[in-house]
Amino acid sequence: MSGERAPGPHWSDAYYGDLYFDSAADLLTPALSSAEAGVIERLLRLQPGDRVLDLACGHGRHAWPLAQSDLRVTGLERNPRYLAIASAGRPVGRREPRWVRGDVRALPLRDGAFDGVFSWYSSLFMFDDETNVRCLSELARTVRPRGRVLVHHANPLLLSLHPIDASRRVLADGGVVEEESRWDPEAGVDRCARRLVRPDGTVLAGTAELRYYSPPEWSPLATAAGLRLIQITTTPFAGEVPGAELNSEAPDLIAVLERPT
């Protein structure tokens, strides 16, 4: 297990707390989560009984469908509310995920504990480049030799074409979500501001700085973390098989890596 002390507070504690969950939960449908879990399972080449880590698992939306594929799933999450929601899920298959509270910068998990590890969406690279390498190294430490690692984040190629974005959305309960983002191609950082106005007038607001690595940056990043880059791909469209080549129209980037023997 990592011997480091648990890291202190970070902007993600507020941004990925009530603000994020209450403004995005309606978009993260069971159908979407199940489809994404299928992509994860295939790209990690998981087999029944394999041990898999869902890093920054949120409310368990991928952990639960993966567990129903007879995988031994561990969901790790820093936010206690998210973990409470995740653990309240109702098992419908043979296995139930194991839930662990922890931080991506210092994982409370033993070396080589998993056959596959994944981080989906903006869950890993929220820091400076040195700390991001440490996060990826921690991830690498927990997977067995020849085990696979999957990291998913927004596609920098697409963001470079549309560097500024703003949206406003009305939730079913009458709440309003407003978001603005600005892509910095030199730094490879997307700076976001989100604001949720609840029906009773209370406001939640927060900012985020998310580091998205371009395809040429991924091989040296993987090497620095003790991994080998296997593939850069994207989430498939309906009817496609995972493994499509990344282009500037794809909404996201998926890096598939392997821990060498």
Topology:
Layout: H1 11-24, H2 30-43, E1 51-55, H3 63-67, E2 72-77, H4 80-87, E3 98-101, E4 114-119, H5 129-142, E5 143-154, H6 156-161, E6 164-170, E7 176-184, E8 189-197, E9 203-211, H7 215-224, E10 228-233, E11 252-258
What does this structure look like?
Strand 8 and strand 9 (203-211) form a beta hairpin. The chain has seven helices and eleven strands. It has 261 residues and is of the alpha/beta class. The protein folds into two domains: 11-157 and 214-258, Vaccinia Virus protein VP39 (Rossmann fold, 3-Layer(aba) Sandwich); 161-208, N-terminal domain of TfIIb. Strands 3-2-1-4-5-11-10 form a seven-stranded mixed sheet, sandwiched between helices. Strands 6-7-8-9 form a four-stranded antiparallel sheet, covered by helices on one side.
